[in-house]
Amino acid sequence: MSKSRFIALPVGQGDAFYLETDAGSVLVDGGRSAQQLPDLFCRYVRRTYVDILIVTHNDSDHVNGILGFLESKFEAGEIWLPGRFVQVLPHLVQESAESIVLSLLEQASLTSPEYLQQLASEETDGFTLLERYGAIVAQRNPDELLENSESIVAEDSGWPPELLDWITERSDLPEFVEPSVYTLLLRELFSTFWYHQLLPVHRLLAYTALRAAERIRRIALAAFDRGIPIRWFQYDPKNPSGGEPWLQPVSAREISRFRPVKKQHLFEFLALTQANRESLVFWVPPDGQHGGVLFTGDSRLDCVTVPAVKSAIATAPHHGSKANEVVYEKLFPAWWVRSDGRFRSRPCQAYRSAPTAKACTVCRAVRFPKQPVIFQGSNGAWLLGRSVRRCSC
Protein backbone atom coordinates (compact mmCIF):
# COMPACT_ATOMS: atom_id res chain seq x y z
CA MET A 1 0.00 0.00 0.00
CA SER A 2 1.32 3.45 -0.93
CA LYS A 3 2.38 5.70 1.91
CA SER A 4 2.95 8.68 -0.39
CA ARG A 5 1.27 11.90 0.67
CA PHE A 6 1.41 15.57 -0.26
CA ILE A 7 0.32 18.32 2.13
CA ALA A 8 0.03 22.04 1.49
CA LEU A 9 0.20 23.42 5.02
CA PRO A 10 -2.27 26.27 5.74
CA VAL A 11 0.29 28.89 6.72
CA GLY A 12 -0.96 32.43 7.27
CA GLN A 13 0.84 33.71 4.17
CA GLY A 14 3.27 32.12 1.75
CA ASP A 15 4.19 28.58 0.74
CA ALA A 16 4.83 25.46 2.81
CA PHE A 17 4.61 22.13 0.96
CA TYR A 18 5.39 18.73 2.45
CA LEU A 19 5.91 15.54 0.45
CA GLU A 20 6.48 12.06 1.79
CA THR A 21 7.31 9.06 -0.40
CA ASP A 22 9.05 5.74 0.10
CA ALA A 23 12.24 7.41 -1.20
CA GLY A 24 12.22 10.26 1.31
CA SER A 25 10.44 13.29 2.75
CA VAL A 26 10.86 16.98 1.96
CA LEU A 27 9.49 20.29 3.22
CA VAL A 28 9.68 23.01 0.55
CA ASP A 29 9.48 26.50 2.10
CA GLY A 30 7.70 27.34 5.33
CA GLY A 31 5.52 30.44 5.07
CA ARG A 32 6.00 33.84 6.69
CA SER A 33 5.58 32.93 10.36
CA ALA A 34 8.46 31.25 12.18
CA GLN A 35 6.20 30.58 15.17
CA GLN A 36 3.30 29.07 13.25
CA LEU A 37 5.08 26.52 11.05
CA PRO A 38 6.23 24.06 13.77
CA ASP A 39 2.68 23.83 15.19
CA LEU A 40 1.17 23.27 11.74
CA PHE A 41 3.80 20.68 10.92
CA CYS A 42 3.04 18.73 14.09
CA ARG A 43 -0.72 18.98 13.57
CA TYR A 44 -0.92 17.84 9.95
CA VAL A 45 2.30 15.94 9.22
CA ARG A 46 2.49 14.43 12.70
CA ARG A 47 6.24 14.18 12.58
CA THR A 48 9.16 16.20 13.91
CA TYR A 49 11.68 15.06 11.30
CA VAL A 50 12.12 15.57 7.56
CA ASP A 51 14.85 14.22 5.31
CA ILE A 52 15.30 17.44 3.32
CA LEU A 53 14.42 21.09 3.94
CA ILE A 54 14.39 23.39 0.90
CA VAL A 55 14.35 27.18 0.65
CA THR A 56 13.46 28.19 -2.91
CA HIS A 57 14.50 31.86 -2.53
CA ASN A 58 14.87 34.61 0.03
CA ASP A 59 11.32 35.89 0.49
CA SER A 60 10.12 36.12 4.09
CA ASP A 61 6.93 34.21 3.20
CA HIS A 62 9.10 31.27 2.12
CA VAL A 63 12.08 31.46 4.50
CA ASN A 64 10.72 32.37 7.92
CA GLY A 65 8.88 29.11 8.54
CA ILE A 66 12.03 27.13 7.70
CA LEU A 67 13.82 29.25 10.29
CA GLY A 68 11.10 28.30 12.77
CA PHE A 69 11.61 24.63 11.91
CA LEU A 70 15.38 24.88 12.41
CA GLU A 71 15.16 26.89 15.61
CA SER A 72 12.66 24.48 17.14
CA LYS A 73 13.51 20.99 18.36
CA PHE A 74 12.67 19.46 14.98
CA GLU A 75 15.26 17.49 13.02
CA ALA A 76 16.32 17.44 9.36
CA GLY A 77 18.77 15.28 7.45
CA GLU A 78 19.85 18.06 5.06
CA ILE A 79 18.95 21.58 3.99
CA TRP A 80 19.12 22.74 0.36
CA LEU A 81 19.71 26.47 -0.16
CA PRO A 82 20.16 28.81 -3.14
CA GLY A 83 23.77 29.28 -4.21
CA ARG A 84 23.38 33.06 -4.01
CA PHE A 85 23.16 32.68 -0.23
CA VAL A 86 26.68 31.28 0.11
CA GLN A 87 28.08 33.95 -2.20
CA VAL A 88 27.10 36.72 0.23
CA LEU A 89 27.57 34.72 3.43
CA PRO A 90 31.28 35.51 4.04
CA HIS A 91 30.43 39.19 4.59
CA LEU A 92 27.43 38.41 6.76
CA VAL A 93 29.27 36.27 9.30
CA GLN A 94 32.61 38.06 9.42
CA GLU A 95 31.74 41.77 9.43
CA SER A 96 30.12 43.95 12.04
CA ALA A 97 26.51 45.05 11.87
CA GLU A 98 27.65 48.68 11.61
CA SER A 99 29.85 47.89 8.61
CA ILE A 100 27.04 46.06 6.82
CA VAL A 101 24.47 48.80 7.46
CA LEU A 102 26.75 51.56 6.19
CA SER A 103 27.72 49.57 3.11
CA LEU A 104 24.12 48.84 2.20
CA LEU A 105 23.07 52.48 2.67
CA GLU A 106 25.95 53.66 0.51
CA GLN A 107 25.32 51.08 -2.21
CA ALA A 108 21.57 51.69 -2.22
CA SER A 109 22.20 55.42 -2.60
CA LEU A 110 24.04 54.70 -5.86
CA THR A 111 20.91 53.20 -7.45
CA SER A 112 20.70 54.68 -10.92
CA PRO A 113 17.81 57.01 -11.86
CA GLU A 114 16.94 54.50 -14.59
CA TYR A 115 16.48 51.75 -12.00
CA LEU A 116 14.44 54.02 -9.75
CA GLN A 117 12.19 54.88 -12.67
CA GLN A 118 11.70 51.18 -13.42
CA LEU A 119 10.87 50.48 -9.78
CA ALA A 120 8.27 53.26 -9.77
CA SER A 121 6.65 52.10 -13.00
CA GLU A 122 6.38 48.37 -12.25
CA GLU A 123 3.21 46.80 -10.89
CA THR A 124 3.78 45.67 -7.32
CA ASP A 125 1.38 42.67 -7.27
CA GLY A 126 2.65 41.65 -3.85
CA PHE A 127 6.33 42.12 -4.68
CA THR A 128 8.53 43.99 -2.22
CA LEU A 129 10.73 46.85 -3.38
CA LEU A 130 13.85 44.71 -3.03
CA GLU A 131 12.26 41.87 -5.04
CA ARG A 132 11.53 44.29 -7.85
CA TYR A 133 15.07 45.62 -7.70
CA GLY A 134 16.38 42.04 -7.79
CA ALA A 135 14.31 41.36 -10.90
CA ILE A 136 16.04 44.27 -12.64
CA VAL A 137 19.49 42.97 -11.62
CA ALA A 138 18.57 39.48 -12.85
CA GLN A 139 17.78 40.79 -16.34
CA ARG A 140 21.45 41.36 -17.02
CA ASN A 141 24.24 38.85 -16.34
CA PRO A 142 24.93 39.38 -12.62
CA ASP A 143 27.80 36.87 -12.67
CA GLU A 144 29.83 39.44 -14.59
CA LEU A 145 30.14 41.26 -11.27
CA LEU A 146 32.09 38.28 -9.92
CA GLU A 147 35.04 38.68 -12.29
CA ASN A 148 38.42 38.33 -10.56
CA SER A 149 36.75 36.76 -7.53
CA GLU A 150 38.60 33.64 -6.41
CA SER A 151 36.67 30.39 -6.09
CA ILE A 152 36.11 28.76 -2.71
CA VAL A 153 35.43 25.04 -2.28
CA ALA A 154 32.97 23.89 0.38
CA GLU A 155 33.51 20.85 2.59
CA ASP A 156 31.12 17.88 2.68
CA SER A 157 29.13 19.74 5.33
CA GLY A 158 28.48 22.50 2.79
CA TRP A 159 30.58 25.04 4.67
CA PRO A 160 33.69 26.68 3.19
CA PRO A 161 36.68 25.87 5.47
CA GLU A 162 37.47 29.58 5.96
CA LEU A 163 34.02 30.27 7.37
CA LEU A 164 33.82 26.99 9.23
CA ASP A 165 36.93 27.79 11.27
CA TRP A 166 35.74 31.31 12.05
CA ILE A 167 32.23 30.29 13.08
CA THR A 168 33.39 27.33 15.17
CA GLU A 169 35.50 29.64 17.32
CA ARG A 170 32.94 32.43 17.57
CA SER A 171 31.80 33.59 20.98
CA ASP A 172 28.98 35.80 19.80
CA LEU A 173 27.82 37.22 16.47
CA PRO A 174 26.21 40.65 16.18
CA GLU A 175 22.57 40.78 15.18
CA PHE A 176 21.90 42.92 12.12
CA VAL A 177 18.32 44.04 12.62
CA GLU A 178 18.09 44.69 16.31
CA PRO A 179 16.58 48.17 16.77
CA SER A 180 19.60 49.06 18.89
CA VAL A 181 21.81 48.54 15.85
CA TYR A 182 19.89 49.87 12.89
CA THR A 183 17.88 52.65 14.53
CA LEU A 184 20.78 54.07 16.52
CA LEU A 185 23.00 54.05 13.45
CA LEU A 186 20.41 56.01 11.53
CA ARG A 187 20.13 58.52 14.36
CA GLU A 188 23.88 59.04 14.25
CA LEU A 189 23.75 59.46 10.48
CA PHE A 190 20.72 61.77 10.63
CA SER A 191 22.84 64.79 11.48
CA THR A 192 25.18 64.25 8.52
CA PHE A 193 24.78 66.00 5.19
CA TRP A 194 25.27 62.69 3.37
CA TYR A 195 22.27 61.04 5.05
CA HIS A 196 19.94 63.88 4.09
CA GLN A 197 20.88 63.39 0.46
CA LEU A 198 19.40 59.89 0.56
CA LEU A 199 15.92 59.47 -0.86
CA PRO A 200 13.34 57.54 1.20
CA VAL A 201 13.50 54.80 -1.44
CA HIS A 202 17.26 54.45 -0.82
CA ARG A 203 16.71 53.99 2.91
CA LEU A 204 13.93 51.46 2.34
CA LEU A 205 16.05 49.49 -0.13
CA ALA A 206 18.93 49.37 2.36
CA TYR A 207 16.69 48.29 5.22
CA THR A 208 15.00 45.51 3.24
CA ALA A 209 18.42 44.33 2.03
CA LEU A 210 19.52 44.20 5.66
CA ARG A 211 16.51 42.05 6.53
CA ALA A 212 17.33 39.75 3.61
CA ALA A 213 20.90 39.48 4.89
CA GLU A 214 19.73 38.57 8.37
CA ARG A 215 17.48 35.78 7.07
CA ILE A 216 20.38 34.24 5.15
CA ARG A 217 22.72 34.43 8.09
CA ARG A 218 20.21 33.07 10.59
CA ILE A 219 19.24 30.11 8.46
CA ALA A 220 22.86 29.16 7.73
CA LEU A 221 23.93 29.47 11.37
CA ALA A 222 20.88 27.57 12.61
CA ALA A 223 21.77 24.72 10.27
CA PHE A 224 25.37 24.84 11.51
CA ASP A 225 24.35 24.81 15.17
CA ARG A 226 22.05 21.83 14.58
CA GLY A 227 24.75 19.96 12.62
CA ILE A 228 22.60 19.81 9.46
CA PRO A 229 24.60 19.51 6.22
CA ILE A 230 23.90 22.16 3.56
CA ARG A 231 23.72 21.61 -0.18
CA TRP A 232 23.86 24.66 -2.47
CA PHE A 233 22.00 25.06 -5.79
CA GLN A 234 22.99 27.79 -8.21
CA TYR A 235 20.34 29.09 -10.60
CA ASP A 236 21.14 27.59 -14.03
CA PRO A 237 18.06 26.47 -15.98
CA LYS A 238 20.16 25.45 -18.98
CA ASN A 239 22.32 22.97 -17.05
CA PRO A 240 20.34 21.56 -14.10
CA SER A 241 22.09 18.85 -12.12
CA GLY A 242 22.49 17.29 -8.70
CA GLY A 243 19.87 16.58 -6.08
CA GLU A 244 18.57 13.05 -5.68
CA PRO A 245 16.93 10.67 -8.17
CA TRP A 246 13.60 11.22 -6.45
CA LEU A 247 14.06 15.02 -6.01
CA GLN A 248 15.66 16.77 -8.97
CA PRO A 249 16.46 20.47 -9.57
CA VAL A 250 15.14 21.71 -12.90
CA SER A 251 16.24 25.35 -12.66
CA ALA A 252 19.61 24.96 -10.93
CA ARG A 253 22.78 22.92 -10.61
CA GLU A 254 24.25 21.70 -7.37
CA ILE A 255 27.57 23.36 -6.53
CA SER A 256 30.41 22.80 -4.10
CA ARG A 257 32.62 25.55 -5.57
CA PHE A 258 31.52 29.17 -5.61
CA ARG A 259 32.82 32.70 -6.02
CA PRO A 260 32.02 35.05 -3.13
CA VAL A 261 30.65 38.50 -3.87
CA LYS A 262 32.89 41.50 -3.39
CA LYS A 263 31.60 43.89 -0.78
CA GLN A 264 30.84 46.66 -3.28
CA HIS A 265 28.24 44.38 -4.91
CA LEU A 266 26.70 43.00 -1.70
CA PHE A 267 23.51 45.07 -2.04
CA GLU A 268 22.86 43.90 -5.61
CA PHE A 269 23.36 40.24 -4.75
CA LEU A 270 21.15 40.46 -1.67
CA ALA A 271 18.44 41.80 -3.99
CA LEU A 272 19.17 38.92 -6.35
CA THR A 273 18.51 36.37 -3.59
CA GLN A 274 14.90 37.62 -3.62
CA ALA A 275 14.49 37.65 -7.40
CA ASN A 276 11.61 35.35 -8.33
CA ARG A 277 13.30 34.60 -11.63
CA GLU A 278 16.03 32.75 -9.70
CA SER A 279 13.63 30.83 -7.49
CA LEU A 280 14.66 27.17 -7.27
CA VAL A 281 12.32 24.69 -8.96
CA PHE A 282 12.31 20.95 -8.12
CA TRP A 283 10.71 17.91 -9.71
CA VAL A 284 9.68 14.64 -8.09
CA PRO A 285 9.17 12.03 -10.86
CA PRO A 286 6.09 9.81 -10.72
CA ASP A 287 6.40 6.15 -9.81
CA GLY A 288 4.00 3.26 -9.43
CA GLN A 289 2.68 4.63 -6.15
CA HIS A 290 2.19 8.34 -6.80
CA GLY A 291 2.14 10.99 -9.51
CA GLY A 292 4.86 13.57 -9.99
CA VAL A 293 5.22 16.83 -8.07
CA LEU A 294 6.59 20.10 -9.44
CA PHE A 295 7.60 22.62 -6.77
CA THR A 296 7.69 25.92 -8.65
CA GLY A 297 8.50 28.37 -5.83
CA ASP A 298 7.81 31.82 -7.27
CA SER A 299 9.34 31.05 -10.67
CA ARG A 300 7.81 32.01 -14.03
CA LEU A 301 9.61 28.92 -15.40
CA ASP A 302 11.46 31.10 -17.92
CA CYS A 303 14.05 29.02 -19.80
CA VAL A 304 13.18 26.00 -17.62
CA THR A 305 12.67 22.66 -19.35
CA VAL A 306 9.53 21.43 -17.65
CA PRO A 307 9.04 17.64 -17.33
CA ALA A 308 5.85 15.85 -18.30
CA VAL A 309 3.35 16.81 -15.59
CA LYS A 310 0.18 15.11 -16.83
CA SER A 311 -0.24 13.05 -13.64
CA ALA A 312 1.44 15.61 -11.38
CA ILE A 313 0.66 18.13 -8.70
CA ALA A 314 2.20 21.54 -9.48
CA THR A 315 2.39 24.31 -6.89
CA ALA A 316 1.00 27.61 -8.21
CA PRO A 317 3.97 29.98 -8.70
CA HIS A 318 3.89 33.09 -6.54
CA HIS A 319 0.49 32.09 -5.17
CA GLY A 320 -1.27 32.54 -8.50
CA SER A 321 0.05 36.05 -9.12
CA LYS A 322 -0.67 37.86 -12.41
CA ALA A 323 3.09 38.30 -12.85
CA ASN A 324 3.31 34.52 -13.33
CA GLU A 325 0.23 34.09 -15.51
CA VAL A 326 2.25 32.85 -18.50
CA VAL A 327 2.81 29.58 -16.62
CA TYR A 328 -0.88 28.63 -16.89
CA GLU A 329 -0.69 28.87 -20.67
CA LYS A 330 2.09 26.31 -21.00
CA LEU A 331 1.74 23.93 -18.08
CA PHE A 332 -1.17 21.52 -17.58
CA PRO A 333 -0.65 19.28 -14.56
CA ALA A 334 -3.32 17.06 -13.06
CA TRP A 335 -3.67 19.51 -10.15
CA TRP A 336 -2.71 23.08 -9.34
CA VAL A 337 -2.23 23.57 -5.60
CA ARG A 338 -2.15 27.15 -4.35
CA SER A 339 -1.12 28.51 -0.95
CA ASP A 340 -1.62 32.13 0.06
CA GLY A 341 -3.10 34.66 2.43
CA ARG A 342 -6.31 36.46 1.48
CA PHE A 343 -5.69 38.97 -1.30
CA ARG A 344 -8.08 40.65 -3.74
CA SER A 345 -5.53 40.55 -6.56
CA ARG A 346 -4.73 36.85 -6.28
CA PRO A 347 -5.20 34.43 -7.87
CA CYS A 348 -5.15 35.98 -11.34
CA GLN A 349 -7.70 35.30 -14.05
CA ALA A 350 -5.29 32.96 -15.89
CA TYR A 351 -5.17 30.71 -12.83
CA ARG A 352 -8.92 30.82 -12.30
CA SER A 353 -9.68 29.94 -15.92
CA ALA A 354 -7.02 27.23 -16.30
CA PRO A 355 -8.64 23.87 -17.22
CA THR A 356 -6.62 21.97 -14.62
CA ALA A 357 -8.24 20.84 -11.35
CA LYS A 358 -7.32 23.12 -8.44
CA ALA A 359 -7.20 23.22 -4.66
CA CYS A 360 -6.22 26.16 -2.42
CA THR A 361 -5.36 26.47 1.25
CA VAL A 362 -7.57 29.58 1.10
CA CYS A 363 -9.67 30.87 -1.79
CA ARG A 364 -10.17 34.47 -2.80
CA ALA A 365 -13.33 36.18 -1.53
CA VAL A 366 -14.65 32.95 0.01
CA ARG A 367 -14.97 33.00 3.78
CA PHE A 368 -14.19 29.36 4.40
CA PRO A 369 -11.45 28.82 6.97
CA LYS A 370 -7.98 27.90 5.79
CA GLN A 371 -7.48 24.23 5.11
CA PRO A 372 -4.59 21.83 4.60
CA VAL A 373 -4.64 20.49 1.04
CA ILE A 374 -3.89 16.78 1.37
CA PHE A 375 -3.34 14.19 -1.37
CA GLN A 376 -2.65 10.46 -1.11
CA GLY A 377 -0.65 8.58 -3.74
CA SER A 378 -2.48 5.77 -5.51
CA ASN A 379 -1.47 3.69 -8.55
CA GLY A 380 0.79 6.34 -10.07
CA ALA A 381 -1.63 9.22 -9.45
CA TRP A 382 -2.77 11.58 -6.70
CA LEU A 383 -6.14 11.39 -4.93
CA LEU A 384 -7.49 14.49 -3.18
CA GLY A 385 -8.41 13.94 0.47
CA ARG A 386 -12.12 13.47 1.08
CA SER A 387 -12.48 16.44 3.39
CA VAL A 388 -10.51 18.88 1.18
CA ARG A 389 -12.52 21.57 -0.61
CA ARG A 390 -11.75 22.18 -4.26
CA CYS A 391 -10.85 25.67 -5.41
CA SER A 392 -13.74 28.16 -5.58
CA CYS A 393 -11.68 31.22 -6.52
Q: How would you characterize the overall build of this protein?
A:
The structure is a single chain. The chain has 393 residues and is α/β, with parallel strands linked by helices. It is built from 13 helices and 17 strands. The chain has a 9-stranded mixed sheet with strand order 9-7-5-4-3-2-1-16-17. 47% of the residues are buried. The mean pLDDT is 89.
- SSE-based structural type: alpha/beta
The gyration radius over C-alpha positions equals 21 Å
Show unreliable segments. Answer: none
**Strand order, largest beta sheet:** 9-7-5-4-3-2-1-16-17
The topology string of helices and strands comes to EEEHEHEHHHHEHHHHEEEEHEEEHEHEEE
What coarse outline follows from CA principal-axis ratios?
Answer: globular
Beta content comes to 15-25%
Helix content: 25-40%
Structure annotation, total helices: 13
Average pLDDT, all residues: 89
Keywords summarizing the entry:
393 residues, 13 helices, 6-stranded mixed sheet, 9-stranded mixed sheet
Please specify the SSE layout and strand pairing.
Blueprint: E1 5-8, E2 17-20, E3 25-28, H1 36-45, E4 49-54, H2 60-71, E5 75-82, H3 83-94, H4 97-109, H5 113-121, H6 129-139, E6 152-153, H7 161-168, H8 179-190, H9 193-196, H10 200-226, E7 230-235, E8 248-249, E9 252-255, E10 257-258, H11 266-272, E11 282-284, E12 293-295, E13 313-315, H12 327-330, E14 335-338, H13 349-353, E15 357-360, E16 373-378, E17 381-384
Parallel strand pairs: 3-4, 4-5, 5-7, 12-13, 13-14, 14-15
Antiparallel strand pairs: 1-2, 1-16, 2-3, 6-10, 7-9, 8-11, 11-12, 16-17
Helix pairs in contact: 2-10, 3-10, 3-11, 4-10, 6-11
